[in-house]
Structures are given as C-alpha cells and as structure tokens.
Amino acid sequence: MVKVSFNSALAQKEGGKKDDEEGKEGGSLGQVLIVPADGKDPEAVVPVRQRRAWCWCWCMCFGLAFMLAVVILGGAYLYKYFSHQESGVYFCGIKYIEDGLTLTEPDVGAPAPRYQIIEENIQILEEEDVEFISVPIPEFADSDPADIVHDFQRRLTAYLDLSLDKCYVIPLNTSVVMPPKNFLELLINIKAGTYLPQSYLIHEQMIVTDRIENVDQLGFFIYRLCRDKETYKLQRKEALRGIHKREVSNCRKIRHFENRFAVETLICEQ
User: Fold this and answer.
1) Which of 41, 50, 104, 229 has the largest CB neighbor count within 10 A?
2) Could you give the CA distance from residue 263 to residue 194 in angstroms, rounded to a whole number?
3) Can you give the pLDDT of all 270 residues of the chain as single tens digits?
4) For residues 17 and 111, what is the distance between their CA atoms, to the nearest angstrom?
5) Alpha-carbon dihedral angle through residues 208, 212, 236, 117, given to the nearest 10 degrees
6) Side-chain half-sphere of 257: how many Cα atoms within 13 Å?
C-alpha cells in the first residue's frame, strides 16, 4: 500500500498564492460589496458607489426642478410688473370751458367761449379694477405733468407730480372718477385718439398732511408708482364746479380727466 502525502509548507505556499490572486482580482474590481446577513446572493447587492451615484442624480433632479419653479414664478411676477407699460394705452383729449358755468349756446354778438384742451394717456386694467392716467407737459395751460393711479380695489388714488418727483395719496373719489368698466366703454365709443365732447372744468383742492413711510401697504400698483419717492397723505376739500377763487400759495396744479368732464386738482402745502 502506497502512502501519498503532501508537503505542508508547499500547501501553505499554494494557499497563499491563491489568496494573493483573489486579493488582486478583488482590487481590480475596485468595489466594496455589502454582504447581506440573511444569506442572499451577493451578486444581487447594489455596490456602494452605484448607490451614491443614484443619490446624486436624485438630488440634481430636485435642484433643477426647484430652480425651474423659481424662474417661472419670478417671470410671472416680472410680467405682472411690466405688462401694463405698452399694451392697451389710449391717447385721448377733452375740450372744456375754463371760465364758464354752462354750456348753453352764446347770444348773438357775444364772444365765443374759450376752450382749453387736456390730452393724456390712459390705460385701464378692467380685471384688476385699476386706471392709469399719464398727463404730459401741457403746451399752453398752466399745469404740471403727472402720473395718476386710481385703484378701485384699494379705494385709493395716487398722484405722482413729475416736476417735484413726489407722491400724494388720498381716498378715491368715486363721484369724480368713473369706474374702469364705464370709462373703458366711453373711450371705445368715442374711438380712442379723438377728443371727447366739449365739456366743463371742476376744481378740487387737496391739502398735504402726513408723510407715508411704508408705501408697500398701499397695494401693488400704488407701490410701483410711489416707491423710493417722498409720499404724503392728502385731505380733500369739497369739489366745486366752475371758478373757485382761492387765496392760497405754494400749490401745484394738475389738470386731468377720468370722466366726461375735466378736473383741476390743486395740491397745496399747509
């Protein structure tokens, strides 16, 4: 009987070789596998590096979605901010009698009535219930250029005197200012760009009172008109039709119209 035996040193050497080869093969893969404790197939386990790549991918997707939402919301806000600048602007004028109380036909031989003209740019946002009036520098009349906002939702009117670069805010006078829907119908009926029928002039006097510090509380449209400008409250005196002689000083005059008649607004310092 022949006895076959192996050299233990040789066996250890071969075993060490096998371990080295397995270690090299494992190093060439460059991945660490998570071996489950329940004895599942290790090949089905996702490598750590691959799991990290998926996490980064999801994070980038959420980040891009968030940035896109910010861009969309910011664009909508900017559109609302600038959309009224050019679209739907009417250029209209009104002829009115400055020094008379009636529009009756003059007697034979009497001098013809002296008419004045006001021209202005008008825009109406019917859904927002807002009117924008822009009065340019008049050619002949003694009046100041101004931008005016009538906000029917806030029930406020704001005057921006372009000569002084100051804003004045007062409660909306609905007996003088025609509602946006009616005013728009009037402009369409007379075909914007022509003159309104001959009319008359009424006078109203405003007194400057307190300064307003937080114009952002006056609504979006008035805030846009008056931001970064000195803004004051106004107190209205009773509007009078025809000539109203006053002994006042330091007043600014704005002539405009938001109805079938013209309005002369005097803004006076106390």
Assistant:
1) 229
2) 19
3) 445 444 554 445 455 555 555 544 544 444 555 555 555 555 555 565 666 677 778 788 878 888 888 788 776 655 554 444 445 788 888 888 875 444 445 455 555 667 788 889 999 998 999 999 999 987 766 789 999 999 999 999 999 999 999 999 999 999 999 999 999 888 887 765 566 667 888 999 999 999 999 999 999 999 999 999 999 999 987 644 454 545 556 899 999 999 989 999 999 987
4) 126
5) 80
6) 26
* CA-angle at 226, arms to 204 and 175, nearest 5°: 30
Return the bridge partners of 16, or none. none
Report residue 113 as tokens.
């009535």
- Which residue is listed with tokens 């996702």? 46
Residue by residue, what is the 3-state secondary structure of 164-179?
CCEEEEEECCCCCCCC
| Structure tokens, 244 | 């109203």
Q: Residue type for 55, please?
A: C
Amino acid identity, position 194: T
Q: Where are the beta strands (DSSP E) in the chain?
A: 89-97, 115-125, 130-135, 146-151, 156-161, 166-171, 195-211, 230-236, 240-241, 251-256, 262-268
CA quadruple 75, 90, 206, 235: dihedral sign: negative
